[in-house]
Amino acid sequence: xxRMTQSPSSFSASTGDRVTITCRASQGISSYLAWxxxxxxxxxxxLIYAASTLQSGVPSRFSGSGSGTDFTLTISCxxxxxxxxxxxxxYYSYSTFGQGTRLEIK
Amino acid sequence: xxxxxxxxxxxxxxxxxxxxxxxxxxxxxxSSSYYWGWIRQPPGKGLEWIGSxxxxxxxxxxxxxxxxxxxSVDTSKNQxxxxxxSVTAADTAVYYCARGVTAxxxxxxxxxxxTLVTVSS
Lengths: 106, 121
What we know:
The complex is a heterodimer. By secondary structure, chain A is mainly beta. Helices cover about 0% and strands about 50% of the residues of chain A. Chain A has strands at about 5, 10-15, 20-25, 35-40, 45-50, 55, 60-65, 70-75, 85-90, 95, 100-105. In chain A, the strands form 2 sheets. In chain A, strands 2, 4, 5, 6, 9, 10 and 11 form a 7-stranded mixed β-sheet that branches. Chain A has a 4-stranded antiparallel β-sheet with strand order 1-3-8-7, with no helix packed on it. Chain A is globular, with a radius of gyration of 13 Å. The relative contact order of chain A is 0.35. Chain B is mainly β. Chain B is built from no helices and 11 strands. Chain B has strands at about 5, 10, 20-25, 35-40, 50-55, 60, 70-75, 80-85, 95-100, 105-110, 115-120. In chain B, the strands form 2 sheets. In chain B, strands 2, 4, 5, 6, 9, 10 and 11 form a 7-stranded mixed β-sheet that branches. Chain B has a 4-stranded antiparallel β-sheet with strand order 1-3-8-7, with no helix packed on it. The radius of gyration of chain B is 13 Å and the shape is globular. The termini of chain B are far apart. The interface of A and B includes residues 32, 46 and 49 of A.
């Protein structure tokens, strides 16, 4: 099974900051990677698929990059509503999620 | 606008079978473009894909759960269902149903609100 490892597991930042979350796959997954945002008590929301394609309606401050085994999610200018937990997911072989990265307000 | 809604018992006894149904509204479950999936999240933990089903009945399961999982579809009711047998406390989780875009596994673009299932005697 393909394992997905995110880093960091949690960190704090301030509104207006530029932040980057990293996701690494245990084997190559081409660009079959998605990113989700989850707020407490809510279902995950799809942000990005195919490593870098923004889902309809998602603000352009979110961007994704990478291929193979290493991927990043970048939020260019943090807004208050962006403080949440973020998950990466590979769908190269079935589906596996990363353990999540919790983004907190500094 | 397509919506998904999970339903089923919120409490299941250990060793019994967990059964949930996802009702799809505002669109057809028989769309050729999508699979339909179940994902779960234990309290305070991450997401785990359980399995996916096509409207034709074709299924794929997480190998770690495969021996205990059955997913079925009822196109006449626009529903798909999850059965997880021999449950333990480790199966306590919020269970989500979601629409899966196939490529080649699935990413999930629409989700239900989720339902908490607690395994306890």
